[in-house]
Amino acid sequence: MTETHLTAPVDERSKGALADSGLRLSLVDPADAAALDAWIIADFRGFHGRRPTEEVLEEARGNFGGRRTTAVYDDGVSTPVGTVNSWVAPLTVPGGAALEAWAISSVTVAPTHRRRGIATALLGAELRTAHALGVPAAILTVSESTIYGRWGFGPATFATGWSIDAKRVRWAGAPTPGRLSFTTPEEYRETGYAVLAETMASRAGEIGLEPYLADRLIGPLKGDEDGDRRLLVRYDSPEGRPEGFVSYVVRGGEEDFSRHVVEVGYLAAATDAALTALWRFLLELDLVAEVKAWTRGVDEPVQLLVQDIRGARLTSVQDHLWVRILDVPATLTSRRYESDGDLVLEVTDELGFAGGRYRVIVEDGEARVESTADAPDVTLPVESLGSVYLGHDLARGLALAGRIHGDADALDRLFRTAVPPRLSTWF
Ligand SMILES: CC(C)(COP(=O)(O)OP(=O)(O)OC[C@H]1O[C@@H](n2cnc3c(N)ncnc32)[C@H](O)[C@@H]1OP(=O)(O)O)[C@@H](O)C(=O)NCCC(=O)NCCS
Questions:
Q1: Does the pLDDT of residue 111 top 80, yes or no?
Q2: Exposure string over 190-214, b if 16+ CB within 10 A, otherwise e
């Protein structure tokens, strides 16, 4: 690829569409601190955040240097009225390979300029640019689940939230050998990067993290209100190998000192031993009545690790990673399959990137994908293909909803994986 996500020119079609409404689509030069600051301020405002301080801006400028940063300007207004940024992230797919995916973040439109087609122009530009560069899929996490289906994204992983009554549950898991110790972000950062890389590579749906995204999980970024109360505990195997960490905050205790609440910021576990040891640590903390955690997998085993299942309550299950397939053969051949099969898929794509009829032949877990004129076994829009791509058991529900036609069970048998995909962070 001679052009990269950073150097590819701005999308002419979206530029023209916005120009017709008196708006200007433009890439932000990462070296232009004033322009990047204005973009960051617009981004924070878009998500109802605080106005960033000088220190936060300085850190964010460094964090976004490797991203393609796009702004929409209404000339005469200094802060952009639309923002988006993107980069190419390795998405772990079933079987463990990393698919190059176009990660999209910071989609905001100023409330003064909403519903004028700015998001449509921004998303169209991102998808056309990614497609032109040969990136086979786009991915994002979303603030609202109603927004991105129209651009061909489908929910592909789900995240769970938990509330555990620490006074009620008792550890019922296996012994947890290994060593736990407090550390600090400064001391642990490089080790933490390696642990995160291993954690992310171990599960379909996770993405390889840029230093910025990893830093958010290991230690506080500037401006984090909880920065001075966040704790970091590492897990090392009995052989001394770093395999996991947990960052958390302890709150409450004002009325009853024995009833603090622990909020887990992030639990990284590259191995099962790390996962169980860190859960046990959290559940056995003294002076704590409740442990809360979010963005865990749908197969989070915590209920089975305690003797009173109802003491570990699932508080939320919601869509998390959304996948937009841009190149059907490239995406389907990059993952592995747990059973062999032969299916003709008719994929429809209103935006024209990935539509077509494809025969998918899986032998020994590997797929070949060929264009075909044979009658389809399954007909589905590209967003439904994105939903089943990473192995989640969504085919049956999508069929019931009329968003997969034909032999959805055969599609499910071919695509589903024993371990469901998971994305355990936001981006
Ligand atoms: C979501 C957001 C980016 C939409 O921007 P926008 O410029 O108003 O969107 P557009 O004018 O291009 O609208 C495109 C279509 O999406 C629909 N749409 C936009 N926002 C929507 C929402 N929140 N829920 C449902 N539909 C929405 C519009 O009605 C329109 O539909 P149509 O094509 O059928 O007419 C904007 O409202 C925003 O910045 N929200 C706050 C930040 C945020 O949530 N960002 C998303 C991050 S994941």
A1: yes
A2: eebbebbbbbbbebbbbbbbbebbb
